[in-house]
Amino acid sequence: MTGLKMIGIGRALPSRCVTNDDLSKIVDTNDAWISERTGIRRRYYCADGESTNTLIAAAAREALECARLQPEQIDCVIVATVSSNYASPSVACLLQAELGIRENIPVMDINAACAGFLFGIATAAGLLQICGGRHALVVGGEQLSRLMDMTDRSTCVLFGDGAGAAVFERDESADLCVDLGSRGGMDIQIEGVGRPDPSYIKMNGNAVFRFAVGVIPDCLNAVMDKAGLTMDDIDWVVCHQANARIIDHCAKKMGAPEKFYKNIDRYGNTSAASIPLALYDMYKEGLLKDGQKVLAVGFGAGLTWAGALLNIHMGASE
Questions:
Q1: How far is CA 23 from the centre of its chain?
Q2: Residue 48 burial class via C-beta count within 10 angstroms: exposed 0-12, middle 13-18, buried 19 and up
Q3: Does 113 score more than 60 pLDDT?
Q4: Chain-centre distance of CA 221, in angstroms?
Q5: Is residue 46 among the annotated active site residues?
Q6: Catalytic residue of the set 240, 243, 311, 313
Q7: Which of 47, 48, 177, 296 has the fewest CB atoms within 10 Å around its CB?
Q8: What is the distance in angstroms between the CA of the first residue and the CA of the last residue of the chain?
Q9: What is the mean pLDDT of residues 85-97?
Q10: Cβ neighbours of residue 3 under 8 Å, at least 6 residues apart?
Q11: Could you give the CA distance from residue 5 to residue 135 in angstroms, rounded to a whole number?
């Protein structure tokens, strides 16, 4: 598979910050109940004029600026989302028009839920190999607040809105090792799609927890086996930020808790945006450095899972 290195990162958050105390005024819950069970302290919801599309465009612009690239230098665009404003056109096509990205390249949306960003990286690598080109823009963005049943405290406290974007450069010396999988089931779903009534996220939390703590270590080990690496060779592990207890359980199982990054307290579960938002925060905190190897793993509705070894090179593109 075509090697890729990450050369730019961007983020966009809605303007409305919602704390656990804010939610306690809407549904029967409180800060202690939420934070102890999930690790979440706050999340962001879109306000008027904000949507999946506006967040994705803003994150993509920042990622291009970080990579020091112009839109016309992008050769492939992949957007991962489960909360597009429209069934069609795709968010990727709207983003192409918004940013002025040239027309004779592949652009598309994918739906792999919380594993979507990593599925997007693998898809971009394959398209660059088949179609040619040097740079790919991969974005994960969600407006999950419009898909929540605010009377269901088991789900409405978990999710938030946001977008993260990354620019990748083709580099045959930077091996891209991935592990992708799916297991058809109904443990996480969005009900009501295709009907006139609202679509709401429904989730079997216990089943998802059991699935996650099993698949995450297996996926991480599979990627390292393909790369010929051990945990000693890895600088950071970035999990989909769904639940702090899931991450802590897997970090202990892998024997390297100091390498597992968490920022779920700031954003909640943002599905496809989760991993790029974590990478963005790590970059801004000075934790990501050129030459580092980052193991990323996501899991979500489908059920889906994905792991990828990311090569970091945040200097200017030549």
A1: 24
A2: exposed
A3: yes
A4: 20
A5: no
A6: 240
A7: 48
A8: 22
A9: 93
A10: 125, 170, 171, 172, 173, 174, 175, 176, 311
A11: 10
From the list 59, 305, 56, the residue with the least C-alpha distance to 187 is 305
d(CA 13, CA 46) in angstroms, rounded, equals 8
pLDDT above 70 (res 198): no
Q: Tell me the DSSP string of 58-97.
A: HHHHHHHHHHT--GGG--EEEEE-S--S-SSS-HHHHHHH
**Active-site residue identified among 114, 177, 219, 250:** 114
Confidence of residue 199 (pLDDT cuts 50, 70, 90): confident
Angle at 208 between CA 240 and CA 46, to 5 degrees: 50
Active-site annotation holder among 20, 53, 243, 269: 269
Q: Is 114 a catalytic residue?
A: yes
User: To the nearest whole number, what is the mean pLDDT of the chain?
Assistant: 92
Q: How many CB atoms lie within 10 A of CB 315?
A: 11
H helix or E strand, kind and range, residue 291? none
The reply to whether 20 belongs to the active site is no
Looking at this protein, which amino acid is placed at residue 196? P
What confidence tens digit (pLDDT) does each residue in 118-145 have? Answer: 999 999 999 999 999 999 999 999 999 9
pLDDT per residue over 133-192, tens digit each?
A: 999 999 999 999 999 999 888 899 999 999 999 999 999 888 889 999 998 865 555 545
Strand partners, 165: 10, 139
Q: Which of 230, 279, 287 is nearest to 256 (CA)?
A: 230
Of the ranges 4-13, 202-211, 251-260, which one carries the lowest mean pLDDT score? 202-211
Q: Which residue has the tokens 């879109």?
A: 46
